[in-house]
Design a protein that fits this description.
heterodimer; A: 323 residues; mainly alpha; B: alpha+beta; OB fold (Dihydrolipoamide Acetyltransferase, E2P); 2 domains; five-stranded mixed barrel; 6 helices
């Protein structure tokens, strides 16, 4: 039993060590964004039409590579700062996959098979666009938890705002140009304050997610995985379940998916498409940021789309393709 | 100290402890048991950022700090200590020696000659790729692969063992054990379970797939033994485990990562 606990501890710590830099980066980016990106600047920059916003959110990851752990605090901040929900939520789901790092790792893991890379991108883009489009008319208050929307992660709302402070709240709607700016030192202090709040808030959830994933990896009975691979529906559902439970980083999951060589391509695609947009640690992280209705949407849309698309692909390959 | 400041201080101390643990891993040599060494720079940066946040938290305590959260962070730190202490034991099970990592392993020659035959040094992952995308010109060559031995009563009865090596892509949680059945040369003894060996030989296509050789290794829920090929060894040599026992790199052609 102690041996299993040791393995559990090693896996849990490994996941945290792997994810911590990205979470820190996300929290830091989020803090800097909060302080240095004014709301009117963002409003000018973002596309007005929901369709253009969804398209922008899908490809934003190509310029801002971000993993699924680091992107949650950033997106929370983006929405609170006035980025249209359609764009921000699309970016949150598409960014961890449609970015150069993950595209390259998928390409390498599948030995240069561009079909897998293209299918993964297409399915994730479809999920992200569907979620983004369905949230196009929502306000930040309808998406974010009250605490998240008012900057409670950093606790700024709990303290009296210092005289002349501009960055005390995520709900800050005052155009920066209208106010006298504080010194760079004060801005950096605020950025660090926000980063601290975001990181501590999300790190707690990441720890819980890592524990669940580590427990699954440590205690899953031998042979359980291989039992699933014979049947298309069982393998697709099984791989979807595994993706959710294992909570792997999108930069690494392609290698794990590739190692399931006995599984049909459709099942491996289900693993590749679902893992980065829905897993245990993400659900826990979302609970610290989004309202229940949004979380329900974030969980249901990917499950339905991945299951339907992969079953169709599996059936098509069985009928016409080389299996 | 106000009641709110106390958990905030505890949280900050935990962050500093975590930063210290990262630095200890990076300096102490056990890093490779958790993460692929190519992430070292990233972990150094994370350790620095955590130390910064920890120090900042001591100066400006987080107003949202709570004992429950501080307790979770402290438990995480305890997990770090437990895993750190267990790493040596785990490495031994995989046949690797954490301490050996400090001794820089000289890059071996891409080929080695034994008893007049020239063998291509390759790692089990690379060999797995070769048989995965059948390349007839590469199947019939002589290869030298290394790994740790796993024996079971069923394999013993067939006079074979599995040669495994753990592939670590990003972190230990993503690791996959990759293996081939090995048939020792005629009259050759089966090596000890857990021993590190180099097997010299050719790939030999199995008459029928043999998935029953698969097993789960501690920590690597995913282990995969090739079902279509085994290695027909002409020579098996005991070897000291390489500094870092896992595979971190796969090359499509010579010189292979070995």
């Amino acid at each position: 039993m102690y041996e299993s606990f040791q393995i559990f501890a090693q896996i849990c710590v490994a996941i945290l060590l792997e994810a911590a830099p990205f979470l820190l980066l996300g929290a830091l980016a989020s803090g800097l964004f909060e302080v240095f990106a004014s709301r009117d600047w963002i409003e000018r920059l973002m596309p007005r039409s929901p369709l253009a916003g969804v398209l922008a959110g899908t490809v934003l990851g190509l310029m801002m590579p971000c993993c699924e752990c680091g992107i949650v605090p950033l997106v929370r901040r983006l929405i609170a700062k006035g980025v249209p929900p359609a764009t921000a939520m699309t970016f949150m789901l598409a960014g961890p996959v449609i970015n150069p790092v993950v595209l390259a790792s998928t390409f390498v893991a599948f030995q240069g098979d561009l079909t897998v890379v293209a299918l993964r991108c297409a399915l994730v883009a479809l999920i992200a666009a569907a979620v983004g489009f369905s949230l196009r008319n929502k306000s930040p208050e309808e998406i974010l938890l009250p605490a998240a929307a008012s900057g409670a992660a950093c606790g700024c709302g709990d303290e009296p705002a210092p005289a002349g402070a501009l960055f005390g709240s995520l709900a800050d709607a005052a155009p920066l140009s209208a106010l006298k700016g504080p010194s760079l030192r004060t801005r950096l202090d605020h950025a660090l304050r926000h980063a601290q709040g975001d990181f501590l808030d999300m790190f707690r959830i990441l720890i819980l997610g890592a524990m669940v994933a580590a427990a699954f990896k440590t205690f899953v009975p031998a042979g359980f995985v291989s039992m699933m691979q014979g049947d298309l529906m069982l393998s697709v559902v099984g791989m979807m379940g595994l993706a959710v439970l294992l909570s792997l980083c999108s930069q690494a999951d392609a290698f794990v998916a590739a190692s399931f060589s006995g599984f049909p391509l459709a099942a491996r695609l289900a693993f590749l498409a679902l893992g980065p947009v829905l897993d245990v640690k993400l659900v826990l992280m979302w609970q610290g940021a989004f309202r229940y209705k949004v979380i329900k949407l974030l969980a249901l849309v990917p499950m339905v789309l991945v299951f339907s698309a992969c079953m169709l692909l599996g059936a098509a390959l069985k009928l016409w393709g080389p299996q | 100290m106000t009641p709110r400041r106390l958990p905030a201080t505890a949280e900050s101390l935990c962050l500093l402890g975590l930063a210290g643990f990262m630095a200890w891993l990076l300096l102490g040599g056990d890093y490779w048991m958790y993460l692929n060494p190519r992430f070292k720079a990233l972990t150094w940066a994370a350790a620095g950022a955590l130390a910064l946040l920890g120090g900042y938290g001591l100066w400006r305590p987080s107003p949202r700090a709570a004992w429950l959260r501080a307790g979770l962070f402290a438990f995480t730190l305890a997990l770090c200590v437990v895993s750190g202490l267990a790493v040596h034991e785990g490495a031994e099970k995989m046949g690797a020696e954490p301490q050996a990592m400090r001794e820089a392993e000289a890059t071996p020659e891409p080929r080695v000659k034994k008893r007049g035959v020239e063998y291509i040094r390759i790692n089990l992952g690379e060999l797995y790729d070769i048989v995965g995308k059948p390349q007839p010109e590469l199947i019939g060559l002589d290869y030298a692969v290394r790994g740790f031995v796993r024996r079971t009563p069923e394999l013993d009865a067939e006079g074979e063992f599995v040669l495994y090596r753990v592939a670590l892509y990003c972190c230990y949680a993503d690791s996959t054990a990759v293996g081939f059945r090995v048939r020792p040369p005629k009259g050759g003894k089966l090596p000890e379970n857990g021993a590190w060996v180099v097997a010299y030989g050719k790939l030999d296509r199995l008459d029928r797939p043999k998935p029953e050789a698969e097993e789960s290794l501690g920590g690597s829920a995913f282990s995969s033994v090739n079902e279509d090929y085994r290695i027909a060894a002409s020579l098996i040599e005991a070897e000291k485990a390489p500094g870092m026992g896992m595979m971190y790199e796969w090359r499509p052609q010579e010189p292979y990562a070995y």
